[in-house]
Amino acid sequence: MRSRFQPPSFDFLLGTDNLGRDLFSRVAWGARLSLTIGLGVVLLNAVFGVILGALAGYFRRLDGILMRLSDALMAFPSVLLAIGIAAAMGASAMTAVISLAVVYIPRTARILRASVLQVKELEFVNASRAAGAGDFHILRRHILPNCMAPLVVQLSFVFAYAILSEAVLSFLGLGAAPTDASWGIMISEGRSYIREAPWLTIIPGMAIAITVLGLNLLGDGLRDVLDPRVKLEQS
Question: What is the pTM of this model?
Answer without folding.
Answer: 0.85
